[in-house]
């Protein structure tokens, strides 16, 4: 009887699991499909004796493989793969629900083992240490209240015995650091965030992405299964069509997401929803009370004050100068460019735009200097 391992998680962790278990892959799933162009949907009446078939000690199925095969392969996975080949052990990353249920029914639960990506969860002490670290970090200036509110929620999750997701809404005007801060939180969990861009959620393609269509199309469920960490950033949540918001009720309430092809566990996930909502009333009216009530906290981000602005400008110049030669650095340092920004009366309040403007001015100054040097040499 075949022995199966269902691995729920990202590809890096799956391959690391196979390596640690010393699994030497004899064949990959797509090799079998490509090698047999004449596979039928049903097993022949007189199937070849199993003993005469090539023994596949270890068959590995990657999550990405499922997007490369037709729907009938998913529906007839057991017959086409297990019954037609002498497979001893099969390792499947993120099996679609139809494959998982079919395999359990055919080979029995006792012959199936589940393995999972091990996502980091901060301990109580790690939350406190991380709070002090990020408060004093030059990577993210300002937003002291937002930082503290966020870490209170992280602390609550660290102490909590249940595994429900933590759902935070970051709101406020554009360009004040909501997305940047979310990425900083991801670093605390030793991984990149899973970023979902919701400004695109306006079309029929978005419907298929959220609720699943066939296995060959991208989907939210697959992206969640392949996440690198439990930090999930849903950017520009306010830009999505409101008809899609009901897709998150079960996800935020019960900690799992299910579409037509997959069921995804979201235990201990931290969802960060960024938006340009201006106040709580604006949020409630736009997303509706049912979803509003499922948000654990709504955290406002504000424009930098004068001192924070000056520190932000200093950091921008410091970072950009690192990319230049010593001679180019002297040109910028001997100019009054930084002083103009530090002492500006009408300062740019969008941090993202401010960095781009300063960068443009620096390289404009360097270009003019290069032109002058070129003329003098000629």
From TrEMBL:
Keywords: ATP-binding, Nucleotide-binding. GO terms for cellular component: cytoplasm. One of its GO terms (molecular function) is ATP hydrolysis activity. Gene3D superfamilies: P-loop containing nucleotide triphosphate hydrolases. It comes from the Bacteria. Transmembrane segments: none annotated. Signal peptide: none annotated. GO terms for biological process: cellular response to heat. Residues 164-306 form the AAA+ ATPase domain. InterPro entries: AAA+_ATPase (IPR003593), ATPase_AAA_core (IPR003959), ClpA_ClpB (IPR050130), P-loop_NTPase (IPR027417). PANTHER family: ATP-DEPENDENT CLP PROTEASE (PTHR11638), HEAT SHOCK PROTEIN 104 (PTHR11638:SF18). Part of a stress-induced multi-chaperone system, it is involved in the recovery of the cell from heat-induced damage, in cooperation with DnaK, DnaJ and GrpE. Acts before DnaK, in the processing of protein aggregates. Protein binding stimulates the ATPase activity; ATP hydrolysis unfolds the denatured protein aggregates, which probably helps expose new hydrophobic binding sites on the surface of ClpB-bound aggregates, contributing to the solubilization and refolding of denatured protein aggregates by DnaK. This is AAA+ ATPase domain-containing protein.
